[in-house]
Amino acid sequence: MHIDMWSDLVCPWCFIGKRQLEIALEQFEHRDQVTIRHRAYQLNPSAEFTTTPTTQMLADKYGISLDQAKEMQSNIVQAAATVGLNFDLGRSLSGNTRDGHRLVLWAQALDQDRGQELLEVLMNAYFEKGESIFGREILASFAAQAGFDPSQALAMLEDTEFIDLVHRDQQIAQTLGCAGVPFFVLDEKFRVSGAQSSELFLSALQEAWDASTSSTP
Questions:
Q1: DSSP characters for 110-177?
Q2: CA distance 62 to 173
Q3: Cβ contacts of 150-157, under 8 Å, gap ≥ 24
Q4: Distance between CA atoms of 195 and 15, rounded to whole angstroms?
Q5: Residue 128 and residue 27: Cα distance in Å, rounded?
């Protein structure tokens, strides 16, 4: 079974949804026959390549005070804790995530499993450690943590590789009716939108598996 997961690297619900899926997979008896592929989705593709404190970005985006923005973040921290994630959003920054997506897509092209490991490294650094995942040298250092050659990662980022794939992933999501992320497609047929419960993911996994096996001669 193959799962495509559209997400943005700075979307907290994407990390929460990713973890809910993983919790479901732990209970799924065919887990060893499931592969997951990251698909790029930018919530704000026109964002500047400079960074802004996320609290300020939220306040500006929604026309609210900094205190109200912090309360929004506090609610997300509580939601994350229910799936074992320890978010630290006070120091988080926002910016353009295109290069981060390029890096994960590049990593997946080299090694699917380590590409997923890199996605986890980036999300863990951003949401749980309060680290920046912006800037090409910074991204190359995260690639090294997942076992990739940082000099090769930096060379790729300094070029234009995978930019077209980031745009393509975004366009595919839109044609599938994706209005936000996280967005999951199981075996190119079954769609799950949002950071759903692990119980719902488990049900979707079983439904997709049953459909695929019943159609097999």
A1: H-HHHHHHHHHHHHIIIIIS-----SHHHHHHHHHHTT--HHHHHHHHHTTTTHHHHHHHHHHHHHTT
A2: 25
A3: 153/103, 153/106, 153/107, 156/102, 156/103, 156/106, 157/99, 157/102, 157/103
A4: 8
A5: 25
Cis peptide before 182 (omega within 30 of 0): yes
Q: Which of left, alpha, beta for 63 (phi over 0: left; psi -120 to 50: alpha)?
A: left
Superfamily designation of domain 2-214:
Glutaredoxin (3.40.30.10)
Closest CA to 45 of 147, 170, 200, 187: 170
Orientation of helix 12-26 relative to helix 112-123, angle to 10°: 130
- At 155-210, the pLDDT tens digits run 999 999 999 999 999 999 999 999 899 999 999 999 999 999 999 999 999 999 99
Task: Encode the chain (217 residues) as per-residue pLDDT tens digits.
Answer: 999 999 999 999 999 999 999 999 999 999 999 999 999 999 999 999 999 999 999 999 999 999 999 999 999 999 999 999 999 999 999 999 999 999 999 999 999 999 999 999 999 999 999 999 999 999 999 999 999 999 999 999 999 999 999 999 999 999 999 989 999 999 999 999 999 999 999 999 999 999 988 755 5
pTM above 0.85, yes or no: yes
Q: Give me the residue spans of the domains in the chain.
A: 2-214
